[in-house]
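#structure-requests
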Amino acid sequence: MRANQTNLNRRFLCIISSFLLLMLSSNAMSQKNIVIKGLVLDEFENPIPYAAVGIPAKQIGTATNDDGFFELKISEENKVDSLEFSTIGFKTYKIKIQDYIDKKLTKFTLIEEVVALAAITLEKPTSYVKKALKKVKKTTLSTKHQLNMLYRRSSVENGKTRFLVEHYLNILDYGPSDTRLEEIGIAESRKSADYRFAFKKQPVHAVHIMGQINPLRQRIYESDYKWERFDDTSYDGEDVLVMKGTKKQEKKNKAKNWIKFYIGMDTYSIYKIEVSRFASKEAGLKAVYIYKKNRDNKLVLSYHNREARFMTPISPQKQKMLKLKAKRVQSSYRHEAIVLDYEIDKKKFDVKNTIFDKKDIGDYNIQYNADFWSKISLPPKTKFYKKSVKDLASIYGVSLEEQFKLVNK
């Protein structure tokens, strides 16, 4: 009787083990990733930078780098979906992912969308801007959502990158209709070796400043600018007007500070923003914000970069050691933010290592997870990032990857 019972138990365990193996195998297959990558060009073989690439219906996407390259990880189940390419000035292009795989495509050509609005009677530029700003809550994703973002800051001194910080951020946000980011978590972090000699720190995490200088979040007054119709273009089938606003001059400030809004004629959506502010020849700021449509035609932040330039004083000892003639050196912060994906289901929100204190991005010490950085699907490196990598490796002949291993604990 006991022998029979033992045999039954063994058979039962075998059945359970087989079932578990089958389930694990099934899960492994379902979780298998496919890497989609390629080059996005115009009809003249010129690369198209910062084009949105993804599956809007599934909230999956990325952006091309400044050389037109992109890389995107998808799952097996996404093979039935369509990959969509969209950017300012070109017709939106779609292709079935299975067709992309079958044809082994590596290049994608976007056709320029010709816009002829010269003969059309338009509203005054100020009117377009005023309506666009008023409709921001309606045209953008303004319900609570989580942005998963790669944020980079390079510290440049005397023309050379001397420190780099990369954060993978989880951000709870209500979009640009809100004046601030709701909650920020540093899920993962890594730093280069710190070769700076002219230290200048920011009073808050750099991503906060990204929000603070965005004209949509600043609640700017259109009456403070002199607006003109600068150019015409298109986005996803909609005619787009480029409105340039030059800040009305103050007597003490001779620098011409301006904003460009890329505004849809029909929806008054603001698809792209360019900002230029200069206090002097040595100090100033240039920034770009690019938004893309989601499945509900609401705009979500896709890409941002900026460079803030300033002069930094150095001590006489360092001046002598580095053989510099000037007591101040030209410095800058180069920032880049890439939204890798976003989530609208509140049950799936997951913000790790929420930050509450106010300190420089380089002063946060988050445990380094090499496995995470080796597995995450990062976008292709941009020109400014490649330069930073080269600069950092050249200082003492140590590669950036090796610095990550040595510096981050």
